[in-house]
Amino acid sequence: MICFGVGTGYAIISFLLGEIIHIFDFDAEIDLFGGLVSPFKPSVIAAFVTVFGGVGLILSGRLGIFTALGLAALSGMAVSFLMYRYIIVPLYRAQNTSAIEKQGFIGLPAKVTERIPQGQYGKITYYANGNTYSAPAKSQDGSEIGRNEPVVIVCIEKNTYYVEKKI
Fold first, then answer.
1. Whole-angstrom Cα distance, residue 91 to residue 69?
2. Distances (CA, A) of 167 to 17, 123, 149
3. Which residue positions in the chain have pLDDT lower than 70?
């Protein structure tokens, strides 16, 4: 029962903290396996603890304690593996692929859709591969760039597009 409660609480707290970290764009990902995403992610651990506690709680009154613990551990590992293999890894690969593709946007013309104040963020819209994209942007030299000004994307760092006025 404790594992189920702790797992559920841990999942909720790590989700909320993960969203806060994502909003402020902290890059605190530790890669323990040389290019592969680590299976020791908070969501995978929370899935194991939650399933282990839940299955253990359900089976503890029906089976012997060791049988219930064994089945609960196997269930937790199975769900954690499936979550890691079919959710976490594909999302990680998709994220890395899109980061590589973004580098191809350097040099593209864009248009400022939300004014870029001096040293602050604004928003741009650009066209690539027949699609329209928008992204947060800053001026490369820190100057202000007005709305509807034509710009060129000069670099991309941590999902921020740095632009210069088009000459």
1. 31
2. 43, 19, 11
3. 14-40, 92-102
State the number of CA atoms in the 13 A half-sphere of 110 facing the CB. 36
**161 contacts 104 by C-beta, under 8 angstroms:** no
Supply the CATH number for residue 117's domain: 2.40.50.140
pLDDT tens digit sequence for 125-163? 988 777 788 888 999 888 899 989 999 999 888 778 899
Backbone angles phi, psi at 35, to 5 degrees: 105, -20
d(CA 114, CA 94): 28
Q: 3-state DSSP call for residue 146?
A: coil
Q: What angle, 0 to 180 degrees and rounded to 10, lies between the N-to-C axes of helices 42-60 and 65-83?
A: 150
Q: Which domain holds residue 26?
A: 2-103
Residues 6+ positions from 63 with CB-CB distance below 8 Å: 71
Task: Look up the pTM and report it.
Answer: 0.43
Total number of domains in the chain: 2
Give me the residues paired with residue 122 across strands: 137
